[in-house]
Amino acid sequence: MTSLPHRVLRALDRFNAAHPWDHNAHYHRWILRQLPGHCHTALDVGSGSGDLARLLTTRADEVHGVDADPTITARARELTAPATPVTFTAQDALTGLPAGAYDVITCVAAIHHLPFAEALTVFRRHLAPGGTLVLVGLSRPTTPADYLLGAAASPLNAAIGWLKNKGRTAPRPVSMTAPTRPADMSFPDVVRGARAVLPGARVRRRLFWRYTLVWRHP
Fold first, then answer.
1. N or C: which terminus of the chain carries fewer CB neighbours within 10 A?
2. Would you tell me how many other CB atoms lie within 10 Å of the CB of residue 18?
3. Among the listed residues 14, 27, 50, the one whose alpha carbon sits nearest the alpha carbon of residue 175
4. Environment class of residue 180 by beta-carbon count within 10 Å: exposed (0-12), middle (13-18) or buried (19+)?
5. d(CA 155, CA 152)
6. What are phi and psi of 75, to 5 degrees?
7. Domains of the chain, CATH where assigned
8. Which helix (DSSP H) or strand (DSSP E) does residue 104 occupy?
9. pTM metric for this prediction
């Protein structure tokens, strides 16, 4: 016989599937709050359909979005008005980043597709002195704190999904994203790995199965 908690979780899963919303976009405004009021250049790694890169144009004179998927990169260009100061390039995030040093680098829900320490090293190399790196990532739950936060997020996830889709005959469309895979690093491993490459990095668990990392280049 199926236990009550299991039935509740299955019901939540079905509800969430019927009321989707973009967990990554949820953090876009938070990312902006970590950045200076104005900067010259910004780089968004794993830019997908370009929502964050376009938002970064409110802070930066020039924005470059990089994604390994040519199809989603083409879609990002289609969605971007011609006068917007942003370019999108289909390139490998480790070997194909545009040359130069950037005042801001962002990466949302993409670093778990990359070798973690190597990616952070590349980001650090491309970040200008005084620049800001902001990541939103996924980690594998392994600790009681992970599971507690996940349990708290489940009903909130359903409530926000219902509010965002309220009154619609069809679910609110979620921005086009590339295929994803589960994260394989635990949160403690993320913290240790980040601080080894980026001393002083601020890493925090967040709701909706995410963590954040903020580092400012000395």
1. N
2. 12
3. 50
4. exposed
5. 7
6. -65, -40
7. 36-139+181-216 (3.40.50.150)
8. strand 102-108
9. 0.80
